[in-house]
UniProtKB/TrEMBL annotation:
It is found in: Plastid. InterPro entries: PAP, PAP/fibrillin_dom. It comes from Glycine soja. Transmembrane segments: none annotated. Residues 10-184 form the Plastid lipid-associated protein/fibrillin conserved domain. This is Putative plastid-lipid-associated protein 7, chloroplastic isoform C. It comes from the Eukaryota. GO terms for cellular component: plastid. Belongs to the PAP/fibrillin family. Its main location: plastid.
Length: 193
């Protein structure tokens, strides 16, 4: 099990990398991720899916929303991104990604984007992922994103494959077919509503 101290220090103040980070910080994180992946205690994670099941919170991703994408989505001044969660139900071969949003000063527009996907084991480390559906709640928030909903889904759509490169009781790292890295920590979902 990797100590959580590295997470607190490494990811502090970067907002999960979503809005970009300096190249030196990105290189430092990616170097550390490679070191952690080399210590993977679960070399065949799809053969031990119970270690992957449950709720996870995203702490870092190389997916970024920059420039015109950020402006088109209204994220510059109006909407901020809050927590990102992923719940994996291995009995149904389903994953639900929940991206929480809030509108500054307008709690009526706080809500979330839910993206549901199914997965199929492709190898001892890889799953193929198929997008199933998505929703934004409440409807008022959907109205904010309706014009650029395809752009929003294009950024967060999980379709493709995911290589699980590290998993223990508290940490999971994956890499997808779009060359993105995802670092997630296990989360007690009893409070995640």
């Amino acid at each position: 099990m990797i100590e959580k101290e590295w997470q607190k220090n490494m990811f502090q103040g970067i907002n999960r990398g979503i809005f970009g980070i300096p190249a030196t910080k990105k290189s430092e994180i990616e170097r550390l991720v490679k070191q952690i992946e080399s210590l993977n205690p679960t070399p065949c994670p799809t053969l031990e899916l119970e270690k992957v099941a449950g709720c996870w919170r995203l702490v870092y991703s190389t997916i970024s929303i920059l420039g015109s994408k950020r402006t088109k989505l209204g994220l510059r001044d109006f909407i901020s991104l809050d927590d990102f969660f992923q719940t994996i139900d291995i009995s149904k071969s389903k994953a639900v990604n929940v991206i929480k949003f809030s509108a500054m000063g307008l709690s009526l527009l706080s809500g979330q984007l839910n993206i549901e996907a199914s997965f199929r084991i492709a190898s001892s480390t890889r799953v193929d992922i198929n997008f199933e559906n998505s929703t934004i709640t409440p409807d008022r928030l959907m109205n904010v994103f309706r014009k650029n909903y395809d752009l929003l889904l294009g950024i967060f759509n999980p379709e493709g494959w995911l290589e699980i490169t590290y998993v223990d009781d508290t940490l999971r790292i994956g890499r997808d077919d779009k060359s993105n890295i995802f670092v997630l920590e296990r989360f007690d979902d009893s409070n995640n509503t």
